[in-house]
């Protein structure tokens, strides 16, 4: 396809395989539905309203976002149920309040008395009733309070006494990215759900409605076996997957729906190097597979059709240069990659690679004209 | 300053200290002038026409760029002497030709017969006389041909027989980033200049005018002692510097003109962690100091005024979270960083961190209103 239009799109560019993208969505959505829960997709991977259309059935479908820039852009596109899943900084409350005034159901996240007091103070001074989630720590990964914490009812009280609403609890099993077996992921999912149930039952016993119990990380979402009382499951990178997820065992190489298309621009024949025009600016600096079972360097090199080429490794990237090394395992020589030929690179970490691009080229199996999906930029 | 305007700019954002930026420029420009040469600045670090105003005296001042997107944007801003210092892919020649038709003096780079033949063919078929640089390998870092290579006069002949012009030779001492002492950098600079002189004298003896001999990398540019016959010196990151350059010994911490301003959004008191709203999306995934004499994690944590805070290290970043760890060496507790307070992070690698931002906030010592410098995005 791209051989026929060598100029447009110019390389490097980010390619989304829409057929795989839709299959990945269907896989998780049907899985979670069969377990009696719902998906609140995290939109941070592609940050695209075009991409979100296939994740959100209607304007009020629940979604997760990681910046207020996303909130503002998705709100402008008509989506109105947005969980900002990063601990709230008090100075960001006016931006949240503005979105609420526009009719957006915004949910904010906190895990400390400082934040809860700031929300209460701003809410009372400005007549705003925020919708608040408390973060529960299920695995020591990052933030949140433990489910048995004495601080939990304290926070709930500060929130509701301040005129805001405790809408839910949120846990994220970030440590599940370190899992090495399916059983480990199942255990992480069980712990994630277990923590949020304990916290939720405690608060409900104290009279807080706290209607939403939210869990999620892409690994646990694909391995949870019991979602009893879990209102919703959050996951982000599952739409495209990547090599980190392949290594964890959540997807296969052939499920990865994202790649960077690049052109060969030179060689170092003595060293067996092929230079391409995708450096870290197009691939990102993410080396997420470095400490996993298989290290893919800066990504897996594939043919223009997406077939993996064994024995090729991108060990070095500069800003606009990638260096593909042909190892002993390669059944190719540098002459198999003449100047002007193209390769596709599957990324270590889809979120990081997508972040380097301002738009994506989207193709599907039907062979219809590519779509362009712009990315929401900034904060 | 930012305490007075807690909402604008919202965090995270990239801050440029213009006073330091101008001093860094003056330092290199006066150094190179004293050695009888000129600077052809590489504009890839900030990719900003506003930033370029202080580097380019007039519209015809020589500049280096790393993408054709930069070429098009700098041309639109009136700059007309642009060296695209990445090996040319044949399919990009039409974009180059279009810029030439607009009056831009574009220079392209190549190091292979395949590229030279493609340039000759396109040039003859379309009546375009390109201005071409040949890349000379001075240290085995990446591309280029050795200065004694038999291919050198061959390439020159293909270029000029094809109706294009061999404008110059280019060497880049990329291995100087691995230097550990000043003497090693001086030796790298000597080798860089030596390689390009050998190649240039050879071609001139054969009757090629080859008027430009171009060398450069930020370390060698600051340590070269003899620039005899060197027409121009290229350097990019010297305008802002960064922690990698500090470790190499090219600048001091206090010369670093770039930082990311971030807000504290939470704590994990048991672990001595402070969470900030700058993750890898704002800082980049670049870990360029990981294998240097001092590893700065994801950047050096400073006070809002830019004073380094010893004993704090960002060992972990997620997309929109940074985790600052307070080590035994820290003379602070997490309570010294309340929710809502701000820190500044000096980056490992200025090019990679700037790449994550769509614009920069620029302040100077005078205390005048900040400027906003937009970044040129994409390819």
Describe the structure in brief.
Chains A, B: Residues 257-364 form the D-serine dehydratase-like domain. The structure is a homodimer of 379-residue chains. By secondary structure, the first copy, chain A, is of the alpha/beta class.
List keywords for this structure.
homodimer, 379 residues, alpha/beta, 9-stranded mixed beta sheet, 8-stranded parallel beta sheet, 11 helices, 17 strands, 29% helix, disordered N terminus
Explain what this protein looks like in three dimensions.
Chain A is of the alpha/beta class. The model of chain A is unreliable at 1-7 (pLDDT under 50). Chain A has helices spanning 18-34, 49-52, 68-76, 93-101, 113-126, 151-161, 182-205, 218-223, 243-248, 280-283, 350-354; strands at residues 13-17, 38-39, 63-65, 81-87, 105-110, 131-136, 165-171, 212-215, 232-233, 258-268, 273-276, 300-302, 312-317, 322-326, 342-346, 359-363, 371-374. In chain A, the strands form 2 sheets. In chain A, strands 1, 10, 11, 12, 13, 14, 15, 16 and 17 form a 9-stranded mixed sheet that branches. Chain A has an 8-stranded parallel sheet with strand order 2-9-8-7-6-5-4-3. Chain A is elongated. In chain A, helix 8 (218-223) links the parallel strand 8 (212-215) and strand 9. In chain A, helix 5 runs parallel beside helix 6. Chains A, B: Residues 257-364 form the D-serine dehydratase-like domain. Chains A, B: It comes from Cedecea davisae.
